Amino acid sequence: MGFSADSDVLPERAVDNSRALPMVRVLVSSCLLGESVRYDGSHARADNIILERWKAERRLVPFCPELAGGFSVPRSPAEIQGEGGLAVLRGEAIVVEKAGRDVTACFVLGAHRALQAARCDNVKLAILKDGSPSCGSTYIGNGSFKGLKRAGQGVTAALLEQQGIRVFSERQIKEAAAYLAQLEAAGAGGKPGDS
Fold first, then answer.
1. Of the candidates 128, 120, 112, 92, which has an alpha carbon nearest to the alpha carbon of residue 163?
2. What does the pLDDT read at residue 183?
3. Residue 183 vs residues 9, 126, 174, 176, 178: alpha-carbon distances, Å
4. Among 56, 105, 137, 139, which lies 20 to 30 A Cα-Cα from 156?
5. Where are the beta strands (DSSP E) in the chain?
6. Angstrom distance (rounded) from CA 161 to CA 157
7. What's residue 143's pLDDT?
8. Is residue 1 part of a domain?
9. Structure confidence at residue 187 (pLDDT)
10. What is the distance between the alpha carbons of residues 108 and 112, in angstroms, rounded to a whole number?
């Protein structure tokens, strides 16, 4: 069977946008958006034009892993005793409240819920509150509850990074924007450098 000249021509069709790549979204610590969810009932609003633009684009996924892990506001301060978030995830470190109560399970649960939210919303990067036992990306408390800091990641930041979601602190929003631009240039679902 052959084709007639008329059967070779396909009718014009509307573009099927149902297969368009979804917008890359950004998981962000709720406290950085002004929500009073920190352990002491405060927030840590990061007034930033890039965050405002992403908010207007509906790109942000606000999340507090500590609330997702079952904590309330206010709550006792907590710090990691051991090497940091990755060690907590491996069972080699714990998270304790100032009074000594082990709250590791709540922090791990909150981290896994953050990862679940990220996967559901096409999150490829996160901006998290540095210094937090959940969200710290460059530093955390040293475990002494004396306000001393050390290099390291919180439990949620470590899990997200382990699963391929790049984590930035509130001081690295410009770097996060550059990374997002690379992701979008690579096709929204890829990683920078993929072609």
1. 112
2. 95
3. 37, 13, 14, 10, 9
4. 56
5. 25-29, 60-63, 78-81, 94-97, 123-128, 139-141, 149-151, 166-169
6. 6
7. 96
8. no
9. 84
10. 6
- Looking at the 3D structure of the chain, how many domains does it have? 1
What does residue 117 show for φ and ψ, rounded to 5 degrees?
-60, -40
| Of 28, 25, 65, 27, residue with least CA distance to 45 | 28
pLDDT value, residue 14: 47
* Mean pLDDT, residues 139-160: 97
* CA 113, chain centre distance (Å): 11
In a domain, 54, yes or no: yes
The count of other CB atoms within 10 Å of the CB of residue 36 is 14
Q: Please indicate, yes or no, if residue 17 is contained in any of the structural domains.
A: no
Nearest to 55 by CA among 76, 75, 32: 32
pLDDT tier at 19, thresholds 50, 70, 90? low
Query: pLDDT category, 20, cuts 50, 70, 90?
Result: low
The tokens of 67 are what?
């609330």
Residue-number span of the structural domain to which 133 is assigned:
23-184
Q: Is residue 51 part of a domain?
A: yes
Cβ(152)–Cβ(83) under 8 Å? yes
**Count of C-beta atoms within a 10 Å radius of residue 70:** 14
User: What's the mean pLDDT in 12-31?
Assistant: 74
Single out the residue of 85, 99, 94 nearest to residue 130, CA to CA: 85
